[in-house]
Amino acid sequence: MQKFPMTAPGLERLEDELRKLKSEERPAIIRAIAEARSHGDLSENAEYHAARERQSFTEGRIQELEEIVSSVEVIDPASLSGDQVKFGARVKLVDEETDREATYQIVGVYEADIKQGLLSISSPLAKSLIGKSVGDSVSVPAPGGDRTYEILEVTYG
Predict the structure, then answer these.
(1) Which CATH class is domain 77-155?
(2) How confident is the model at residue 1 (pLDDT cuts 50, 70, 90)?
(3) pTM of the predicted model as reported, rounded to 2 decimal places
């Protein structure tokens, strides 16, 4: 079985979503299906079909989350150190073309959220950064052509 690296907060978010789906969403769908059934003819009952579709999606997501959660290997970035970029590192970069700075934390695939600065370990940028140190430049393929970034800072924890 393949293990997925993830930070503790990322695992907590997935477990919270799973708990909510099982304890709130699933019972609400069951009530909606029962209510729609009470209206009679199921073949032309849009509420019933919508509730069944929602149930199918929810059950699929529950199954997906259970598989992910059972395959997680939690890595604590605070226990790591050094000046090389590894999983869990917070990396401050500067775009060498635009001088725009950005900071990202390299996290697991299932907890990535670029808007929050959480960069997936499988992204092209993260793959380019792994193993590099402060002062190194990395070139990353992008739709508009390669982008070059300089690593300004690497921290853990």
Answers:
(1) alpha beta
(2) low
(3) 0.79
